[in-house]
Each structure stands twice: as C-alpha cells, then as structure tokens.
Amino acid sequence: MFMRYPLWARTDLPDDNADEETAFFRAGAALASLDRLLVHPLPCQGAWLDRLALGAAAATAAWAGRPEQEEDIRDAYRHRQMGAEIGPAGRHYLFWRRLVHPVGLSVEAVRAAAVEIGQKPEDRLESLAEAAIALAEGSLSPVRAAAAIAEEAIRACPTSLPLALWLADAVLARRLRWPVAVPLLARPLLGRRFTAGKIGGMAWRKECALAYAEAAARAYASAEQMAARADMLLMVQHQIRAKETSAMVALLLENDAVAPSAGPSAMSDRARRRLLERLVGLDAVRELTGRPSFRLYGL
C-alpha cells in the first residue's frame, strides 16, 4: 500500500518562491498519495487520525494562547475522571476529534463543533454550514473549495480561526469523496503564525495549497510509521496467552494512546499494565510518557 513518496511533491519547508500553479500541483500530488490510505483504510486508521487530531489541537490551542503541548493534552484526556472538566486545551482536542469521525457535514455537525471550540451557537452558523455544504458539492477544485470556505467562515466568525480551518478540512474531504475528514490545515498554517487577517485572495489560495501539500506529506509519513507498528502488533498478539489481548490490541489500533485503566474490564489493572509492557518489549507498542507511573501506550 505504501509507495515511495514523490520527492518533487515534498514541502518540508515553506517555499515562498513557488507560484500558484506549483503550489496546487504539489497539493494535488500530496493529497493523491494520502487518498490511497483513506479509500483502503489501514488497520490503525483510528489511531492515525486520532494522532493527527491531537497535533491539530496543539496547534489551535497554542494559537488561542494556551501553554499545553501535545503530551499535556494527551494526559488531560486519557487520565480524565468520569464527568470531570477536561479544560480549554482538551476541548480543542474534542473539537478536532469530531472532524475525524464520519458524522457528515451538516448544520448540526458544524454547530456542535463550534460550541466545542467556544463559538456561541448563533444563527450565522447555519448559513455558514449551508455554504460549506454548497462548496463541498460544487464544482471548485477541492483545495480552492477548502480555501473558499475558510474565507467565508472568517467573515462570518472573525474570532474563530480554528472553526475556519476545521471547515476547510471538512469541505476538502467531501470534495475528494473521502470516507472521513483528516485534520491537515491547522498545523502547518498556525505553525507559521498565520492569522485570520491573511485569509482571502490569491495569496491565501496559494498558502492553503502549500499547507495542504506539507500536511499531507507529514500525514503520509506518520501513517507509514504507525502502520509498521500495527503490523508488528497484529503479528505478535498471537504470542501472548492473555485472553483479552485482542481487545487491548483493538484499543491500541483505534486510539492515539491507551491508559492501562482503559483496557478490558475483565483484566485486573496489574494484568493490563503487564500486557502493555509485554507489547512494548516486543517492539509492537511504545510507552509515550517516559514516566514510571500514569503511563500511556500507543503505536
């Protein structure tokens, strides 16, 4: 499934000299490479998309002035108590996790996402959702449609750049007929301290195309690394006699990170920890925190 990524499509660093045609060419090549992974899902697709959502959450949380990094957001979510407040940075994570679940692009979905990120559910969200649906079903190329809805969203909700980028990714996925949306735009754009004032016009469309090219290349590389671990995990699970191994493996394939306490309830906490450490020892899973306690595990 994984083929050599075209070197001429890589954008490891922003190319300020690229013209609009080159930017769209690179975006098309990068998104085509990603397309194969979404049309024929990987065993670890859930964990892969979850990790991309975490990266997008860290980017939008930083844009909002939050100090939390990816590992802080992961901790807050994975070690949360039932019914406890997850905090502002954690809500950014929930916001992006909404995108990667195939709930569809609808007025209700846009309104729920906006509320998650702190945008008040005002009437203009309905017209914004309708505009997103129209662009998703229209004739503009996918990247141009994504750029257009981001511009429309900033005009409607000037204080919510994250919502604009969320909608751009949602529209792109619908235009590409992907079964699920992928968080792509936030990390490259906000990492370059992009601001809402820069959205709009030809320069924005080129910036959007280059950002999609960069993000898709990174997402492809991440998928390749995680898929290798997933293959190892599926291979070694039969070497372990614990009855609930398959249930734990399923959790690891669906989530960016798993706490021992989230494992199968039929196992004791000690048994869950021992199973996860065994998988680490077999090089099928990584321990993600580096701590001696309150550990998290993932591909």
Order of helices and strands: HHHHHHHHHHHHEE
Number of domains: 2
Unreliable stretches, pLDDT < 50, 5 or more residues? Answer: none
What is the mean predicted local confidence, pLDDT?
A: 88
Overall form: globular
Please provide the count of β strands.
2
Main sheet properties: 2 strands, antiparallel
Beta-strand fraction estimate: under 5%
The number of helical runs is: 12
C-alpha termini separation: 19 Å
Helix content: 55-70%
**Cα gyration radius (Å):** 20 Å
Class by SSE composition: mainly alpha
Give, in spatial order, the strands making up the sheet with the most strands: 1-2
Helices and strands, with pairings:
Blueprint: H1 20-39, H2 45-63, H3 70-78, H4 88-99, H5 107-116, H6 124-136, H7 142-156, H8 161-175, H9 186-191, H10 201-236, H11 245-254, H12 269-281, E1 286-287, E2 297-298
Helix pairs in contact: 1-10, 2-4, 2-10, 4-5, 5-6, 6-7, 6-8, 7-8, 7-10
Folded structure, characterized:
- The structure is a single chain.
- This protein has twelve helices and two strands.
- 60% of the residues lie in helices and 1% in strands.
- It has a two-stranded antiparallel sheet with strand order 1-2.
- The chain has two domains: 18-224, no CATH class; 240-298, Orthogonal Bundle (Arc Repressor Mutant, subunit A), CATH 1.10.10.
- It has 299 residues and is mainly α.
- The mean pLDDT is 88.
- The chain has helices at residues 20-39, 45-63, 70-78, 88-99, 107-116, 124-136, 142-156, 161-175, 186-191, 201-236, 245-254, 269-281, and strands at residues 286-287, 297-298.
